[in-house]
């Protein structure tokens, strides 16, 4: 007969199904690169001419800032375990 396994703790990510940190890091990098590329394409071609920023550029920059903050907070929380 098989020995009964101890219950899996949710605080142990390796025992709960694998370490997802490399996959999450890769997802953050890919999202950052894509949003950075899209926001650079949405920038005005002449940066010295004072033109108002378009709404889509502001949305992309806010999303990029959110991804950066989310990845920093996630890494900080993961380091605390």
Which features would summarize this protein structure in a list?
81 residues, mainly alpha, 2 helices, 58% helix
Précis, in short:
The protein is mainly α and 81 residues long.
Please, could you describe this protein's structure?
It is built from two helices and no strands. It has 81 residues and is mainly alpha-helical.
List the helices and strands and how they pair.
Layout: H1 21-42, H2 55-79
Helix pairs in contact: 1-2
What is the straight-line distance between the termini?
35 Å
Helix-strand string: HH
Mean pLDDT comes to: 81
Number of strands: 0
Radius of gyration: 20 Å
Multimeric organization: single chain
Low-pLDDT runs: none
Structural class: mainly alpha
The DSSP helix count reads: 2
Shape: elongated
Strand portion, in percent? under 5%
Reported for the largest beta sheet, the result is: none
Helical proportion, percent range: 55-70%
